Amino acid sequence: MLSYIIKRISMAVPTVFIVTLLVFGMIRAIPGDPASLMLGDLNDPALLQQMRHSFGLDQSIPAQFVIWVSHLLSGDFGMSIVRHQPVLELIRETFPVTAEIVLAATFLACLIAIPAGLFAAWMQNRRGDLAVVMGSIMLVSIPSFWAGILLIWLFGVKLHLLPTFGYQPFSQAGWGSFKYLVLPVIAVALGEIAVVTRMMRASSIEVLRLEYIAHARAKGLSERRVLLRHTLPNAFGPTLTVIGLVLGHLLAGGAVIETVFTLPGMGRLLVESIYSRDYPVVQGCLLVIALLYVLTNLVVDLLYPIFDPRLKL
Amino acid sequence: MPSSPKRARRANLVIGAVLVGLLLLIAVVNLVYTPYGPLDVNIHARYAPPSLHHWFGTDEFGRDILSRIMSGAGVSTTVSVCSVLFALLAGTSIGAVCGYAGGWFDRLAAMLIDALMAFPGLLLALGIMTVVGPSKWGVVIALGLAYTPSVSRIARGAALSLRQRDYVVASQTMGNSGAWTLLRHVLPHCVAPLLVFSTSLFGSALLAESALSFLGLGVPAPEPTWGGMLADGRTAIDQAIWVVLFPGAAISLALFGINLFGDGVRDLLDPRMKGGM
């Protein structure tokens, strides 16, 4: 087990390195000198020279990369050009909002999708299954931003039940802060329910075909016990991988839903920084989201042997 | 009752094919006909509700929403098809060459592909859009590059499994060049998995294009896009829900068709997936 953990972690190291290199390369590929872009219309050659030196832009590209990574490792993600705040501080302020939505949406999606997928597999090729299949295709076809706008219209504009935009942290509004998250979480969860249901159904079908399930049924176990005790745990492994991928995609897709509900999350910070050409923030957000994605997949892979003991390498 | 799910799957494929066909038809028809000019402003008809004159109503500038949806279908389809073709061309070339060549070159490429796949597609596209700036062809490049790694991985896997096959080794033994063997004997076998994948990629590209346009980072105004129409209309939903209802329904219907069609094509071309979803 320990060798599997070491092996999997060591596999993530080159990925992290290449991801870092790519984020660096992307921002460097933007036409124009970063220091001039940051100075905007300010035409001061001395200041430009000073900025170029302080960012290490007067050095070779590999040297610039090394300087940037060493700054990252010491927790220095640079300063926002527009907001005049350290990038890491901005990310720290906005990340909890994104994390709350992503985690709550994933939890909600799992709560519905895992029983739905299991039920569909049990009912394979019968009406209940076809209904779940069709329902999940419909759900996955609804873009979260459209679902969000319709939810705002229905629950905010027409029924006046929930706030349509904004956010209040738990520390300020207590349980009242959750009402700001209900609609975004539902909007995001709809598509995810479909993805997780499809995977859960497919993996449950595979498990239900195995001999030990036939044996369990032959022993006279109830269908409920066959499904919950013998099918669910074994079918959950592959579904967990998909849940990991979904979590990562939600982190990136958060930009859209946070824009719909004007939530101060990391996705919206990224998009606003792209608009305002605040490149240090863009770079920081891209890097943090990509690294979180790598980390999520790593954690999922490390958890996998718990659900599938055959994977003990 | 084995025939019932089979019939249902076939019906899904037909419905999917009809919807995708309709999308492509509208994408072509809008080049020669739309009820009104998609950019024609009529300040006297601002936020006109759906009527016989304007089937889907009008927006804040009195522009006909049906005409703009038809025009948006053209933009979305062009961008999605071109980005999928870009990814297929680049991804298949990279993946097939790496898988076929093997050795350290393949291992390095595999590592790079894995790292690129560590970027969620939309995030990679957002990063690339930062570099290339918002434009129609910028979106094609961004989405094409974002989807290239996943296509490469499939092509590489297929090429890797084929390189030791007897007929491939025979072709090499006969003195055929590596390029000829790859083109004539390896690539044709990658077509089926890539075709299945490209239909799902088409849906992802259409959704990502809409999302980028919604964020204002995709195809810039005044060119009508479904995502852009949703972004413009969302501030007016209290007085005119139709400005977001119909463009959103267009995206959903297109995705629904593509998803049904994709599942149907997979069932047809990949018998192992039959009974799955």
Question: Could you describe the 3D structure shown?
Answer:
- The complex is a heterodimer of chains A (313) and B (277).
- With 313 residues, chain A is an all-alpha fold.
- Chain A has 13 helices and no strands.
- Chain A has helices spanning 2-28, 34-39, 45-54, 61-73, 87-122, 127-140, 144-158, 170-173, 179-208, 211-218, 223-260, 266-275, 279-307.
- The model of chain A has no long low-confidence stretch (mean pLDDT 87).
- Chain B has 277 residues and is mainly α.
- Helices cover 71% and strands 0% of the residues of chain B.
- Chain B has nine helices and no strands.
- Chain B has helices at 3-29, 65-101, 103-116, 121-132, 136-162, 166-173, 178-214, 226-233, 242-269.
- In chain B, 53% of the residues are buried.
- At the A-B interface, helix 1, helix 6, helix 7, helix 9 and helix 11 of A face helix 1, helix 3, helix 4, helix 7 and helix 9 of B.
List keywords for this structure.
heterodimer; A: 313 residues; mainly alpha; 13 helices; B: 277 residues; 9 helices; 0% strand; elongated
Q: How is this fold's topology laid out?
A:
The complex is a heterodimer of chains A (313) and B (277).
Chain A (H helix, E strand, L loop, with lengths): L1 H27 L5 H6 L5 H10 L6 H13 L13 H36 L4 H14 L3 H15 L11 H4 L5 H30 L2 H8 L4 H38 L5 H10 L3 H29 L6
Chain B lengths: L2 H27 L35 H37 L1 H14 L4 H12 L3 H27 L3 H8 L4 H37 L11 H8 L8 H28 L8
Summarize the structure.
The complex is a heterodimer of chains A (313) and B (277). Chain A is built from 13 helices and no strands.
- Could you list the spans of chain A in which at least 5 consecutive residues all have pLDDT below 50? none
- Share of β-strand residues of chain A: under 5%
Helix content of chain A: over 70%
Query: Quick one: biggest sheet of chain B?
Result: none
Main interface: chain pair and counts: A-B, 57 and 50 residues
Number of strands of chain A: 0
Q: Given the C-alpha coordinates, what overall shape of chain A results?
A: globular
Note the gap between the termini of chain A.
Answer: 6 Å
Largest sheet of chain A: none
Got a strand count of chain B?
0
Mean pLDDT of chain B: 88
**SSE arrangement of chain A, N to C:** HHHHHHHHHHHHH
Estimated radius of gyration of chain B? 22 Å
| Percent in helix of chain B | over 70%
Number of helices of chain B: 9
What is the mean pLDDT of chain A?
87
Percent of residues in β-strands of chain B: under 5%
Assembly annotation: heterodimer
Query: From the helix content, strand content and strand pairing of chain B, which structural class follows?
Result: mainly alpha
